[in-house]
Every structure is written in C-alpha cells, then in structure tokens.
Amino acid sequence: MKYKRVLLKLSGEALMGDQNFGIDPLRLEQYTNEIKKVTESGVELAIGGGNIFRGIQAEQSGMDRVQGDYMGMLATVINAMALQSALEGADIYTRLMSGIKIDQVCEQFIRRRAIRHLEKGRLVIFGAGTGNPYFTTDSAASLRAIEIEADVVLKGTRVDGIYSADPEKDPNATRFTDISYNDVMQKGLNVMDMTAFTLCQENQLPIIVFDMNKPGNLLKIIEGENIGTLVH
Fold first, then answer.
1. pLDDT tens-digit map of 17-55
2. Among 8, 19, 162, 192, which is least packed by CB within 10 angstroms?
C-alpha cells in the first residue's frame, strides 16, 4: 500500500445521493462496501464528514452565524452516527469522536486516543468539526489529518478531480492529474477553503480529490494508482 494512514473527507452532498436532503441509504451502503475493502487491507482509516446544514446558509436567512455554525456541527454528528451504524453493520470496528462534548453518543476528541484507536485497527470517524464556529468541515478534516499524522487527505466528491473550470458549466474545462499548492492558489481553483488548504500546504500534507461514487476508486488510490487529482 502506498499510504498507511489516511483521512477520508466525505461531503454532505455526496451522502445525499440523488435526494434533495438527508442521507441516501443506497449511497451509504455503497460507501460502506468501499470502506470495508480498505480496512480489510490493513490501512489505518479515519473519516471526516460534511454537514447537512451550513452556518453560512443560516446567516443568509437571518440567523446568527455562530448559532448556525453550531447547528452545522451537530448536523455532522448526525451524519457520523449514520455512517457509524452502517459500518458497524458491516462488522467494521469504529469509534466516533466529536469536537463538542456529547458523552451519550460519542467520545470527545483526544489526539493520542484517536491515534491509539487507529493503531488498534479501529476506524475513527470525526464529527462536530473543530468544535469552533467559523471553521468549515474541510478545515476540520485538514486539522485532524495533521493531528493524527495521516499520510494524505482524500477528498471524496462527485467529480473525478480538479478542473481548470467547472466541468458542469464549461465543456472546455481540463482536468489536472497533479498540481502544486502554489498553482492551485495562483489559478484560483476551488479545492478547499483557504484555511484548510493553507494548513495542508504548511504541513506538506498531500490532497487527492477524486470521484468517491465510482466503485473501487478508494482502494485503488491507496494502492498507488493515479486516480483523481493530486495536490502536493
């Protein structure tokens, strides 16, 4: 395996599947099958989830931004609990760790404990972002990846990499197979929010953006195949 310890970032939109909101059971089952192949290979895997509610959306509707962000953090815990249930149904040992203290449903994030879980072969799911408002789930994923000393951040999305423009709007958009941190910034490409991206750049943590919905992609990337776009 090319990577021994990996953080997989799943978007809230990806979990919705073809639905307009919530969590798609079929998509959840598909992701569980993909993740099981990885854990069975002996790779230490952590997962950071996206939210089904966003603080920025709340702010646009007149709600206080901080309140909206905390609601978004709780929404990521709902996603994480659904994912944990699906994974445990497939006999994958998991631990759910939260940036906010919610003792009844998950452990509070402690770095050394998270690393120990991974070393023991347990899959770790990170919920509730960083536990602070004004930070996105991308920022939380980057921070947790650095804290657990992951080899790479895999950003599983609905597109097969990073393009020069939005491929759904521009038919002439071209896909990059690999690109430097500096080129991403100079070209103004939307990979992660700037805080998350800068964290990865400063800590020399590579990012791979790939299509999570294509069966087999996740394991192939971890085995070293050139799938998606590598940012390094």
1. 666 666 778 888 999 999 999 999 999 999 997 765 454
2. 19
Sign (positive or negative) of CA dihedral 45, 103, 84, 9 = negative
The tokens for 187 are 């070209």
Asked whether the beta carbons of 161 and 29 are under 8 A apart, the reply is: no
Contact indicator for 34, 86 with CB cutoff of 8 Å: no
Residues 229 and 209 sit within 8 Å (Cβ to Cβ) = yes
95: which strand partners? 124
148 secondary structure, DSSP code: T
Distances (CA, A) of 83 to 49, 162, 187, 206: 9, 26, 35, 25
The tokens for 135 are 């930070």
Strand 175-176, strand 178-179: pairing: unpaired
In 3-state terms the chain splits into helix, strand, coil percentages (rounded to 5) of: 40, 20, 40
Q: What amino acid occupies position 33? A: N
In the predicted model, what is the mean pLDDT of the chain?
Answer: 90
Sequence-distant (6+) residues with CB within 8 A of 146 are 199, 200, 203, 205
**Structural domains for the chain:** 11-154+178-231 (3.40.1160.10)
Is residue 159 exposed (0-12), middle (13-18) or buried (19+ Cβ within 10 Å)? middle
Please give the helix or strand (H or E) that residue 41 lies within, else none. none
